[in-house]
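Write out this protein's structure.
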Amino acid sequence: MNQQDFVDSIKSWVSLDNKLKVLSEKTKEIREERNDISERINVFVEENNLLNNVVEITGGKLKFSTNKSQTAITYKFLEKSLGEIYSQEEVEKIIEHLKNTRESKVEPEIKRYFDNI
């Protein structure tokens, strides 16, 4: 890559980054609107006992159900849970070992900063 290719690549990167920013903002707006509507639909579904029902829509179906998800396993959670069965000294040793042996990956990145105008 020569100097001019580098400059052209930077210009292309910034242009694409600008497009992604616009799309990301629009996506966020659409997601927020959909979430608001989802809340209203879910209230109606609960109030009318429609859980596990299916609604036929163009191109598919909508099924109303519940989803159980678990929170992420954090060091704080591990410390609390391990503290219930091990001594504080053992817990600290285990947590320290986990922190020291956790894999990490270093990758190059291009990070954009905006001037505060």
